[in-house]
Structure formats: C-alpha cells, structure tokens
Amino acid sequence: MDLNHIVFIVMDSCRWDSFQAAATPNIDRLGVAQRRYAYASWTAPSHHAFAMGLMPHTSPRDVFASEVYKDEYAQWRERTGHGGIEFKAFLPDLSLPKVLRTLGYRTVARVSMPVLNQSTLISRDFDDYKLMPTHNEFHRMVDEMEFPDGEPHYYFLNLGETHYPYMLDGSRLPRISGVHGALKAMDDPAVATSNPTGFDPGQMEMLRLQQIKCVEYLDGQIGRLMAATPPNTHFIVTADHGELFGEEGYFGHGPIMHEKCFEVPFVEGRLG
C-alpha cells in the first residue's frame, strides 16, 4: 500500500484573524481555511493534543464529545491513505507518532519552542526529534526535509516565527516589561508581575501587524516546500493557540480565558 507523506505545520501563537488578514496564496492551494478552536491556550498542552492525533475542533453543538473524537481519529485514514486504521490502533498510548511508525512511517519533528524540547514526553515516539537553535528556523527545516520513494515520512513542524516577539530577525526586537527575561526572574519575589498602567495601544497594534507579516513570510516558505514535495503529500496547517494584543487588558496567551486565545486557523489537503 502506498502511503501519503504527511507534513503537519503548527504556526505557534497564530490567531485566526491574523491569518485571515495575511496574504497566503500557497496555503490557499490546500483549500479554504476554517476557524477552529484549540484544546488549550498555550503551547505544551496543545501539542500534547496534537501528539494524540487530535486537531483543533469546531465546537459543534448537539453532539456528544465522543462522536467528535471518533470522527477526528477516522480522518487519519484519509490523511495517510491507509483505509484500515481503527481507533483501537491508538490505544492504549494515544500516540499518533507511534501509530504512524507501526504503519511504516519515519516520524520526524522539528520544533522552535524550548517548552517542546527533546526531553519532554512529546518527543517519545519520534524517530528524529530536534529543537532548533532559534525561533526563526523554518527555512532550515525546509532545507533538511526529504521525501524518498518507498518510505513515507511524517513531518511535525512547530514554527516560532509567529510567536512573540513576531520578528524575523532581532534588529527591531520590541521590549515589553514583564515578558523579557520572565523565566530568569520567576524565582525572584521582588520582581513585579502586574501591569497597572495597561498596554500601549500603538505597541500592541505594531505587534499584531508583525504577526501578520510573519504569516506571509511562512506562506512563502510553505510554497518553497510545496515545490519539493511529491503529489502524495498531505498538508495540515494550523496553530496551537491564539494570541491577545491588548484586548480587554490581555496580552499574549497561556493563563487567559478569552476567545482570541483559542481561535486558530485550520486547513488541510493535497496539491493533487
């Protein structure tokens, strides 16, 4: 049985309306993007859902959750080209990479976020898993990808370009008090974490526009990748969560309950 290559692209932190505002002629070749909802509001738990084989959901009404999950797992028959995959194949591990390896896939992950590093549980069932040296390495990921005949590949790519600080280089790095150096300062109780003055609207708008520019840059790189892939390559393009740019006093993502933190784009398909 000839299995499809699979390229699963996660634009980290890319909110739905940023994606909508961007010009994405290459991604558009896959079909019409949908607004979907992430299972979590930050990177690590959302990627655990991806590792289970779950995509962002549509929040359907009048349906049992179990039916949504069942339908989602059934989609992997079409994505792989293997019509015999059953839900029980995912049990008990609930690991998509493990299921794909059982089918004969070589499973490769390239991630940009340190919270997804190779020591985390997410890496467990990949043949090849690597944290890239910097946020903005999608062009190098593309350079390294191969699609050999007779060996289906599953590529899982976490892209940091759309994540804060939404910059393609460090020349105009914005500085937001409370964000820069946050991890280094976590153990210091003297470091204030509140923001009583609120966020500067001009700075927030600049960052939102920067994220849109980064989506357009990624679309160009996806076009370069598409030119190198065989026809039996199934693409998935989505995000792990959204982002806040000052709306209602919120910035970023994580411990935030706001619709914009969960709205994400989703599109999949083959070029034919």
How would you explain this protein's 3D organization?
The two termini are about 20 Å apart. With about 270 residues, the chain is α/β, with parallel strands linked by helices. It has one domain: Alkaline Phosphatase, subunit A (3-Layer(aba) Sandwich). The protein is built from 7 helices and 9 strands, in the order E-H-E-H-H-H-E-E-H-E-H-H-E-E-E-E. The longest helix is centred in the C-terminal third of the chain and has 26 residues, at about 200-225. The protein has a 7-stranded mixed beta sheet. A two-stranded antiparallel ribbon has the order 7-8.
How is the secondary structure organized here?
Layout: E1 5-11, H1 16-21, E2 34-37, H2 43-51, H3 65-80, H4 96-103, E3 106-111, E4 128-131, H5 138-144, E5 153-159, H6 182-185, H7 201-226, E6 233-238, E7 244-245, E8 251-252, E9 263-270
Parallel strand pairs: 1-5, 1-6, 3-4, 3-5
Antiparallel strand pairs: 2-9, 6-9, 7-8
Please tell me how large the radius of gyration is. 19 Å
The CATH architecture is: 3-Layer(aba) Sandwich
Class by alpha and beta content = alpha/beta
Q: What is the N-to-C order of secondary-structure elements (H for helix, E for strand)? A: EHEHHHEEHEHHEEEE
Spans of at least 5 consecutive residues with low confidence: none
* Overall geometric form: globular
The CATH topology turns out to be Alkaline Phosphatase, subunit A
Specify the CATH homologous superfamily. Alkaline Phosphatase, subunit A
Number of helices: 7
Secondary structure: number of strands: 9
CA-to-CA gap between the ends?
18 Å
CATH classification class:
Alpha Beta
Strand share of the residues? 15-25%
